[in-house]
Amino acid sequence: MKKIVTLLIIQTSCIVLFAQDPQFSQFYAAPIFLGPSMAGVAEQPRIFANYRDQWPKLAGRYVTYALSFDNYFDRYRSGVSLMLMHDRAGGKKMVTTMAGLNYSYRIIAARNFFIQPGLSIQYSKRNINYSSLKFADQYIGNTEMPTTVENLPANPKGHADFSSSVLVFGEKYWLGVSFDHLMKLNRSLVDNNRYLPLKASVYGGYKIILKEELLNELEKSFSLAFQFRDQAHMEQLDMGIYYKQHPFMVGFWYRGVPIIQNTQTRDAITLLGGLEFDKITFSYSYDFTISSLITYTGGANEIALIYKFEKNKFSRKKHYGAVPCPKF
Question: Can you give the three-state secondary structure of the chain, one letter per residue?
């Protein structure tokens, strides 16, 4: 009976996967995947490495790897970033690999008020491991046949996609809006009318600096932040707080949409912590499932690693301000 229940959970999750994207609880440790406007927000080159293991207690666990790089060219007031993502769903039964290029441009609207629109182009490939699937015609009584007569679609399948976003920010606040999957191409492996629906995201926050030492770049601060996503009539809200006292960082997050009807009112509580050194930031988070799946999933583990390069020596001396987002 337990195997049947687990199989039903996995199959139901795979159906949802066709309609929704992979996500990170530490979304500010993977800012390039929030929206193309986040390219170059720190005014220095950075590399991000992210790993997420979701629902490890299930046989069909979800594992996501991501790697990204961004840089800001203040001579042109432009940010550029590259991103790679590799997602394994249902215990490697479905694998998606994506590569993208982002561009943003910074507009100085007023003193300490900036607008940063962005565009992104991506290309991805999706592959199903048919050897790990079993079909009804492969079972004759208690005998399992090695092959199936099912007409399986071509594999893998690739497609291009586009995203756009706009970010406004000041010295202590930021607010962004992103729209993903502007190219309505078929992402399924068969020729039908199933498309990955448009995803709309709104994210932002406010930073409260308690203590700052400019010469040593040490800081004690609180950051209030949120992210709201809507895709295929599924809404999700992350809201929480970061506290930083160099070199330590901790955070507490709640995921759920208690104010919208016909939506799961609670999903997970996320606890995270990290260390920030001169050029390297490391953080770990764990999602405690608080929905009806609390006894089945095993939560989610997530690791983020950020490496910051020296600022470009050939850039102008005058800088136009960086987004005050949390460091992780």
Answer: CHHHHHHHHHHHHHHHHCCCCCCCCCHHHCHHHCCHHHCCCCCCCEEEEEEEEECCCCCCCEEEEEEEEEEEECCCCEEEEEEEEEEEECCCCEEEEEEEEEEEECEEEECCEEEEEEEEEEEEEEEECHHHCCCHHHEECCEECCCCCCCCCCCCEEEEEEEEEEEEECCCEEEEEEEECCCCCECCCCCCCCECCCEEEEEEEEEEEEEEECCCCEEEEEEEEEEEEEECCEEEEEEEEEEEECCEEEEEEEECCCCCCCCCCCCEEEEEEEEECCCEEEEEEEEEECCCCCCCCCCEEEEEEEEECCCCCCCCCCCCCCCCCCCC
Contact 33, 229 (CB under 8 A): no
What would the pLDDT profile of 17-59 be if each residue is shown by its tens digit? 344 688 899 999 999 999 999 999 987 899 999 999 988 887 7
Sign of the CA dihedral running 185, 187, 191, 195? negative
What's the gap between Cα 194 and its chain centre?
A: 23
What pTM was computed for the model? 0.83
pLDDT of residue 67: 98
Provide the residue count of the chain: 328
Do 270 and 288 touch, CB atoms closer than 8 A? yes
The domain defined by 2-308 folds into Porin (2.40.160)
Token match 């987004």: residue?
A: 323
Q: pLDDT tens digits, residue range 180-215?
A: 988 765 555 544 445 578 899 999 999 998 876 655
Give mean pLDDT in consecutive 10-residue pieces for the chain, a chain of 328 residues: 35 41 90 95 92 85 94 93 93 88 95 94 87 76 75 76 96 95 63 68 94 66 93 88 92 80 68 92 93 75 94 54 66
